[in-house]
Amino acid sequence: MSISDLSFLPSAQGPSVRAVRDQFHGDLLEVSMGPQHPSTHGVFRMVATLDGELIVKLKPVFGYLHRNHEKIAENTTYLGSMPYTDRLDYLCSMSTNWAYALAVEKLAGQSVPDRAQYLRIIMAELTRLVNHACLVGFLFNDLGTSFTPLLYAFREREKIIDLFESLSGSRMMCNYQRFGGCRIDPTPEWLKAASTLVDNFPRFLDEYETMLTGNEIMLARTQGIGRLDPKHAINAGITGPVLRACGVDYDVRKVDGYGFYPRFNFRVPLGAHGDTYDRYMMRILEMRESVKILQQAFKELPEGPIMDPKAKIRGFRPKAGEAYGRLEGPKGELGFYLISDGSPNPYRYRVRPPSLINLTLLEEMCLGHTIADSVVILGSIDIVLGEVDR
Amino acid sequence: MSDAPSSPSAPAVGAGAPGYTPFPAAGNISDADREDLRRHGVLMTSFEELYNWGRSNSIWPLQFGLACCAIEMIAAATARFDIARFGAEIFRPSPRQADLMIVSGTVTKKMAPLVVRLWNQMPEPKYCIAMGACAISGGPFKQGYNVLKGIDRFIPVDIYIPGCPPRPEALLNGLIQLQQKIKGEKLTGPDAARFTRADKPSEFPIPDYGAHDLEPTKNTTVWSPPSPPAKV
Amino acid sequence: METVEQIRDRLLARFPAAKITLVTNPGAAAEHSLLFDAASARELALFLRDDSALALDYCSNATGVDWPDKEITDVVKTTVPDPAGGAPKIIEQKSTRMQPGCLEAVYHLYSMAKKNGPVVIRLRTVNRTDQVTLPSLTPVWRSCDFQEREIFDLYGIIFEGHPDLRRLLMWDEFKDHPMRKDYVEPDDYEWEPTAHGTVLERAKAHQPAAPAKEAKP
Q1: C170: chain B residues, CB-CB within 8 Å
Q2: Which helix (H) or strand (E) element contains residue A297?
Q3: Does the beta-carbon distance from B80 to A91 stay under 8 Å?
Q4: pTM of the prediction?
Q5: Does residue A126 sit in the same domain as residue A261?
Q6: Which phi and psi angles does A162 have, rounded to 5°?
Q7: Least CB-CB distance to B225: which of C169, C186, C190?
Q8: pLDDT digits (tens, 9 = 90+) for A163-197
Q9: C4-67+102-185 maps to which CATH number?
Q10: Which domain holds residue A55?
């Protein structure tokens, strides 16, 4: 009887997973959870090597949605790239627009009027509500509840994107932010409708939590699954709710204080264990904090212009230089790195995708768990392939 | 029930189109008599009509969302827009059990061989809807080294739904048009549907990953570049 | 947090053999960066991460940039006195030289422990053709794992010490590095309804020559 080590993988969590082939253990099975799969959240492929049902190796494969956004941006003006940023993270177009506008305003030294800052925060937090509600719905899809929580989440999403549509003209691809402000001023009726929606949102959250949070099956399938160590998470560049679930207090809204976030009174929820259950609870708690921010914003929204009068729209040529602008998107730290050479098109345009970098430790999180758990872990990381592959 | 195809005077058109009668005349019975019989609870139709009606009202799409249009496809399946009214709420994860592939989102060159492979794995009768500008022609990402300029380069597309992304109502409209197309399909005769004919291929060669591009870049039996409009 | 100049001085004091240059950022953002040489980049990065004052434990962004070879024209103006006694003439001498291009990797570092940043560091290759290796900073910050693979895929920089350097976004058989400035896309614009510029030329090349006008019957 000969024992040959097929792979010895040091795992971040401690004891390593050894895969051996001998007469007692069977062969390892390599499964491609291919790009067309009901639960890979888009065209994402995982090549998993299984010992029975346990994962011993997991390699993600990207690029099935690589639409060369960065190359197109080098041939397009700065403003012309704004609709493309909608299509990066297609669930959260308002906050991706803001991240790009933030980076360009940093590059050009452009200031933004007060009302526009408040409007941006309103749109970003509404987007956070949409994203987190849909994420919880998709996560429960992966857990096997087929469609019901997703239908509840999409009901709320439809209400919010109806607001976006009446404001910006499009449900998903809003193209709302501009360099120096926002595109359209909401009417008082819009503000009233949005404010009413936000005031009713905690009732939806209570309904959602009653159904989901204490559910036995959900607890059994998510607690202790996919633990992430905070030191490894920091080193791997994980950001967003996934990082905060490990207990690391890093929220770019508090650290950088971009926009007018320092004026708002909100807490940052932190997890204790770094497992899938904590990541789920992060989203629920962040939705509650977003409601608080929105209520404050609607109360304090000042009158005034929504666009800086000195902002140049036509013939926008920022001076040569570079800038890295980042914000706390619903999925993590979303950053744009721009190098300008004085021409109307950027010389280098780079998106820092939170979804791609949050996948760095996917293998470590999934080792030793079953393949069914890997689906749940992937769901809790919250990826959108438009952002991963750009 | 008569097996004869519809009479030549009443061409088989899909439901909802002008000139469509619910019970196409078959044999010598006029439509007025047929309507009369129906009121008495007797249904007279043709086998083809019944078969097409059954197929079109229970289309099972393949769960195949590529990009942003996939979110609108999921929204079409949710309670507000409700694709279940049309019998199409069962999105099958396996291509073996699906009969509609809604290509929703940008098809990249890396993904194109897999789309063709999935198409080949679907059993006939099968249909393809190209949803969104990217699936029709590459869309906003047309200048792309990795973007396939339209999925119809490799597989035959039945319905094109423009939009970026098209609203869920637009997807439902496209689905209704597909249903009309299916209802108008003939099972016999010179212009019978593709799946009844042995000479029409239902599997297409899968392109390979080349050093610079896919090989071949397009399937010339399925698609040829349209000629530019003549100068006026 | 220390300024970029202070960080540079401290690094030079600690690693006197390293070559560190300050690259100023002329724009409004004023994010100046430090250019490291490839030989000492790894130990400098480890110092930046483990230093108690800086604690740059989080690498937010790793990017590739392509600087192609640039033709620079030097104009030298010399004043030549007029032998006839009139006004002195100014003669311009133009000489062109090729400034060799390079590929560059830019890293944005933040500190999660101290909640400050960014510190921007750059690494440049020797040229764009054959000497395109740089040390990988993945052993220092794991977040560079996928990002360096993407830089390898799209720009062609080979990172030494990377645990798994292969293409990320394009398929493995792909040969080019698409984000380079001199990349030519494959030609599949057989017909474009609103073509313009270079795409129009390429689309025209595919169309057959216009047939002669036929007489109407």
Answers
A1: 110, 146
A2: helix A276-300
A3: no
A4: 0.88
A5: yes
A6: -65, -40
A7: C190
A8: 999 999 999 999 999 999 999 999 999 999 999 99
A9: 3.30.460.80
A10: 3-61
